[in-house]
Protein backbone atom coordinates (compact mmCIF):
# COMPACT_ATOMS: atom_id res chain seq x y z
CA UNK A 1 0.00 0.00 0.00
CA UNK A 2 1.39 3.37 -1.00
CA UNK A 3 1.62 6.17 1.52
CA UNK A 4 -0.68 9.15 1.04
CA UNK A 5 1.03 12.01 -0.80
CA UNK A 6 -0.24 15.53 -1.36
CA UNK A 7 -0.18 16.37 -5.07
CA UNK A 8 1.94 19.38 -6.00
CA UNK A 9 0.34 22.71 -6.77
CA UNK A 10 0.26 22.91 -10.58
CA UNK A 11 1.45 26.13 -12.19
CA UNK A 12 -1.05 28.65 -13.54
CA UNK A 13 0.13 27.97 -17.12
CA UNK A 14 -0.73 24.29 -16.66
CA UNK A 15 -3.97 24.85 -14.72
CA UNK A 16 -5.37 27.52 -17.02
CA UNK A 17 -3.22 27.71 -20.18
CA UNK A 18 -5.80 29.12 -22.60
CA UNK A 19 -8.53 27.90 -24.88
CA UNK A 20 -6.25 25.46 -26.73
CA UNK A 21 -6.20 23.04 -23.75
CA UNK A 22 -9.91 23.16 -23.07
CA UNK A 23 -12.60 21.32 -24.97
CA UNK A 24 -16.25 20.48 -24.72
CA UNK A 25 -16.74 16.99 -23.25
CA UNK A 26 -18.47 14.33 -25.32
CA UNK A 27 -21.84 14.18 -23.58
CA UNK A 28 -22.83 11.07 -25.55
CA UNK A 29 -19.98 9.07 -24.00
CA UNK A 30 -20.51 9.45 -20.24
CA UNK A 31 -17.75 6.96 -19.37
CA UNK A 32 -15.17 9.01 -21.26
CA UNK A 33 -16.43 12.24 -19.68
CA UNK A 34 -16.33 10.65 -16.21
CA UNK A 35 -12.78 9.45 -16.88
CA UNK A 36 -11.73 13.00 -17.86
CA UNK A 37 -13.29 14.46 -14.71
CA UNK A 38 -11.73 11.86 -12.39
CA UNK A 39 -8.37 12.23 -14.08
CA UNK A 40 -8.40 16.02 -13.72
CA UNK A 41 -9.63 15.79 -10.12
CA UNK A 42 -6.62 13.64 -9.29
CA UNK A 43 -4.11 15.74 -11.21
CA UNK A 44 -5.25 19.23 -10.16
CA UNK A 45 -6.47 18.34 -6.67
CA UNK A 46 -4.27 20.85 -4.85
CA UNK A 47 -5.27 23.65 -7.23
CA UNK A 48 -8.92 22.73 -6.72
CA UNK A 49 -8.43 22.78 -2.96
CA UNK A 50 -6.98 26.30 -3.17
CA UNK A 51 -9.93 27.49 -5.31
CA UNK A 52 -12.43 25.90 -2.90
CA UNK A 53 -10.75 27.45 0.15
CA UNK A 54 -10.69 30.91 -1.44
CA UNK A 55 -14.39 30.80 -2.36
CA UNK A 56 -15.26 29.25 1.01
CA UNK A 57 -13.39 32.01 2.88
CA UNK A 58 -14.96 34.83 0.89
CA UNK A 59 -18.49 33.51 1.42
CA UNK A 60 -17.73 32.50 5.01
CA UNK A 61 -16.46 35.97 5.78
CA UNK A 62 -19.77 37.41 4.57
CA UNK A 63 -21.95 35.04 6.64
CA UNK A 64 -19.92 32.91 9.09
CA UNK A 65 -22.73 31.25 11.10
CA UNK A 66 -24.60 29.91 8.06
CA UNK A 67 -21.32 28.82 6.50
CA UNK A 68 -20.31 26.90 9.61
CA UNK A 69 -23.74 25.24 9.77
CA UNK A 70 -23.49 24.28 6.10
CA UNK A 71 -20.00 22.84 6.57
CA UNK A 72 -21.12 20.73 9.53
CA UNK A 73 -24.18 19.40 7.68
CA UNK A 74 -22.25 18.53 4.51
CA UNK A 75 -19.43 16.89 6.47
CA UNK A 76 -21.93 14.87 8.51
CA UNK A 77 -23.83 13.70 5.44
CA UNK A 78 -20.59 12.80 3.65
CA UNK A 79 -19.20 10.86 6.61
CA UNK A 80 -22.56 9.16 7.16
CA UNK A 81 -22.85 8.16 3.49
CA UNK A 82 -19.33 6.75 3.42
CA UNK A 83 -19.98 4.81 6.63
CA UNK A 84 -23.31 3.50 5.30
CA UNK A 85 -21.69 2.63 1.96
CA UNK A 86 -19.15 0.48 3.75
CA UNK A 87 -21.35 -1.09 6.45
CA UNK A 88 -24.81 -1.50 4.93
CA UNK A 89 -24.99 -4.11 2.18
CA UNK A 90 -27.88 -2.56 0.24
CA UNK A 91 -26.21 0.88 0.16
CA UNK A 92 -22.85 -0.64 -0.71
CA UNK A 93 -24.47 -2.46 -3.65
CA UNK A 94 -26.28 0.71 -4.79
CA UNK A 95 -23.05 2.74 -4.56
CA UNK A 96 -21.16 0.16 -6.61
CA UNK A 97 -23.85 -0.05 -9.31
CA UNK A 98 -24.66 3.70 -9.45
CA UNK A 99 -21.63 5.71 -8.28
CA UNK A 100 -22.65 9.00 -9.93
CA UNK A 101 -26.22 8.74 -8.66
CA UNK A 102 -24.87 8.00 -5.18
CA UNK A 103 -22.84 11.24 -5.23
CA UNK A 104 -25.86 13.15 -6.52
CA UNK A 105 -28.05 11.76 -3.72
CA UNK A 106 -25.46 12.77 -1.11
CA UNK A 107 -25.62 16.32 -2.49
CA UNK A 108 -29.46 16.31 -2.52
CA UNK A 109 -29.63 15.10 1.08
CA UNK A 110 -27.14 17.80 2.08
CA UNK A 111 -29.27 20.42 0.36
CA UNK A 112 -32.46 19.13 2.01
CA UNK A 113 -30.92 19.20 5.48
CA UNK A 114 -29.56 22.70 4.89
CA UNK A 115 -33.01 23.89 3.88
CA UNK A 116 -34.29 22.66 7.25
CA UNK A 117 -31.65 24.70 9.07
CA UNK A 118 -31.96 27.75 6.80
CA UNK A 119 -29.14 29.49 5.03
CA UNK A 120 -29.53 27.61 1.76
CA UNK A 121 -28.08 30.46 -0.32
CA UNK A 122 -24.95 30.62 1.82
CA UNK A 123 -24.67 26.86 1.47
CA UNK A 124 -25.07 27.10 -2.31
CA UNK A 125 -22.53 29.89 -2.64
CA UNK A 126 -19.97 28.65 -0.16
CA UNK A 127 -19.99 24.95 -0.78
CA UNK A 128 -21.66 24.28 -4.11
CA UNK A 129 -20.05 27.16 -6.03
CA UNK A 130 -16.51 25.80 -5.53
CA UNK A 131 -17.79 22.33 -6.47
CA UNK A 132 -19.41 23.74 -9.59
CA UNK A 133 -16.25 25.62 -10.56
CA UNK A 134 -14.14 22.52 -9.97
CA UNK A 135 -16.52 20.28 -11.93
CA UNK A 136 -16.61 22.77 -14.82
CA UNK A 137 -12.81 22.94 -14.98
CA UNK A 138 -12.41 19.17 -14.64
CA UNK A 139 -15.00 18.61 -17.39
CA UNK A 140 -13.56 21.10 -19.84
CA UNK A 141 -9.80 20.72 -19.24
CA UNK A 142 -8.19 18.34 -21.69
CA UNK A 143 -5.71 15.90 -20.22
CA UNK A 144 -2.00 15.91 -20.97
CA UNK A 145 0.59 13.15 -20.75
CA UNK A 146 1.60 13.99 -17.16
CA UNK A 147 -2.06 13.99 -16.16
CA UNK A 148 -2.65 10.55 -17.68
CA UNK A 149 0.51 9.13 -16.08
CA UNK A 150 -0.42 10.42 -12.61
CA UNK A 151 -3.91 8.95 -13.00
CA UNK A 152 -2.54 5.54 -13.99
CA UNK A 153 -0.18 5.49 -11.00
CA UNK A 154 -3.03 6.42 -8.63
CA UNK A 155 -5.40 3.84 -10.10
CA UNK A 156 -2.80 1.09 -9.99
CA UNK A 157 -2.17 1.75 -6.30
CA UNK A 158 1.43 2.93 -6.81
CA UNK A 159 0.49 6.31 -5.43
CA UNK A 160 -2.21 7.48 -3.00
CA UNK A 161 -3.56 11.01 -2.66
CA UNK A 162 -6.32 12.64 -0.62
CA UNK A 163 -8.51 13.10 -3.73
CA UNK A 164 -7.93 9.46 -4.66
CA UNK A 165 -9.15 8.38 -1.24
CA UNK A 166 -12.26 10.60 -1.53
CA UNK A 167 -13.04 9.35 -5.05
CA UNK A 168 -12.58 5.77 -3.91
CA UNK A 169 -14.93 6.36 -0.96
CA UNK A 170 -17.53 7.72 -3.41
CA UNK A 171 -17.10 4.73 -5.72
CA UNK A 172 -15.50 6.68 -8.57
CA UNK A 173 -12.20 4.80 -8.73
CA UNK A 174 -13.31 1.21 -9.14
CA UNK A 175 -14.02 1.40 -12.87
CA UNK A 176 -10.65 2.96 -13.62
CA UNK A 177 -8.82 0.41 -11.51
CA UNK A 178 -10.62 -2.47 -13.23
CA UNK A 179 -9.81 -1.07 -16.69
CA UNK A 180 -6.14 -0.70 -15.81
CA UNK A 181 -6.04 -4.14 -14.24
CA UNK A 182 -7.60 -5.66 -17.38
CA UNK A 183 -5.13 -3.73 -19.55
CA UNK A 184 -2.14 -4.92 -17.50
CA UNK A 185 -3.37 -8.53 -17.54
CA UNK A 186 -3.80 -8.43 -21.32
CA UNK A 187 -0.26 -7.05 -21.73
CA UNK A 188 1.15 -9.75 -19.46
CA UNK A 189 -0.52 -12.46 -21.57
CA UNK A 190 1.07 -11.09 -24.77
TrEMBL record:
<dbReference type="GO" id="GO:0005789">
    <property type="term" value="C:endoplasmic reticulum membrane"/>
</dbReference>
<dbReference type="GO" id="GO:0051051">
    <property type="term" value="P:negative regulation of transport"/>
</dbReference>
<comment type="similarity">
    <text>Belongs to the PRA1 family.</text>
</comment>
<dbReference type="GO" id="GO:0005856">
    <property type="term" value="C:cytoskeleton"/>
</dbReference>
<keyword id="KW-0812">Transmembrane</keyword>
<keyword id="KW-0007">Acetylation</keyword>
<feature type="transmembrane region" description="Helical">
    <location>
        <begin position="41"/>
        <end position="62"/>
    </location>
</feature>
<dbReference type="GO" id="GO:0005886">
    <property type="term" value="C:plasma membrane"/>
</dbReference>
<feature type="transmembrane region" description="Helical">
    <location>
        <begin position="97"/>
        <end position="114"/>
    </location>
</feature>
<dbReference type="Pfam" id="PF03208">
    <property type="entry name" value="PRA1"/>
</dbReference>
<dbReference type="InterPro" id="IPR004895">
    <property type="entry name" value="Prenylated_rab_accept_PRA1"/>
</dbReference>
<protein>
    <recommendedName>
        <fullName>PRA1 family protein</fullName>
    </recommendedName>
</protein>
<keyword id="KW-0963">Cytoplasm</keyword>
<keyword id="KW-1133">Transmembrane helix</keyword>
<keyword id="KW-1003">Cell membrane</keyword>
<dbReference type="GO" id="GO:0016020">
    <property type="term" value="C:membrane"/>
</dbReference>
<keyword id="KW-0472">Membrane</keyword>
<feature type="transmembrane region" description="Helical">
    <location>
        <begin position="68"/>
        <end position="85"/>
    </location>
</feature>
<keyword id="KW-0206">Cytoskeleton</keyword>
<keyword id="KW-0256">Endoplasmic reticulum</keyword>
Amino acid sequence: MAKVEIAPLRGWDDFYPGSDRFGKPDTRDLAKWNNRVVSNLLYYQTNYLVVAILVFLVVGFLNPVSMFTGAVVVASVFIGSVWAGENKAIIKKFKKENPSLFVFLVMVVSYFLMSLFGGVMVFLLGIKLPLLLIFAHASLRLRNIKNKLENKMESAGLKKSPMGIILEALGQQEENFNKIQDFLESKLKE
